[in-house]
Amino acid sequence: MHVLYRNLRMGLVGAVVAGAFPLAMPAVGAESVSCGERQGILKWLEGNFHEKRTAFGLTSDGRVLEVFAAPSGSWTILVTYPGGLSCLVTSGMDWQQIERHEEDPVS
Known about the structure:
Layout: H1 2-20, E1 34-37, H2 38-49, E2 52-58, E3 64-69, E4 75-80, E5 85-92
Antiparallel strand pairs: 1-5, 2-3, 3-4, 4-5
């Protein structure tokens, strides 16, 4: 189910974002990275997946990394470059929000 969702979603991201936003980046690994104007991408994430920003941070080279998630568990990582270009990096399902002081369940 999760692989099917990811493939379907990335296909939709590529089709919708590349169609709506004229600039697309080359593939990174097995997934393609679609780029465009940030406000348009945010509207698309909200309108299609009900995702809202849940976390963000500044990278060492000045990019803004944001995580968007929905109550359904879908999530997307968006990176915005200093010049204003925003790129969808990856997305998935089963996002779990944790508190800072919770024990790491993996270790």
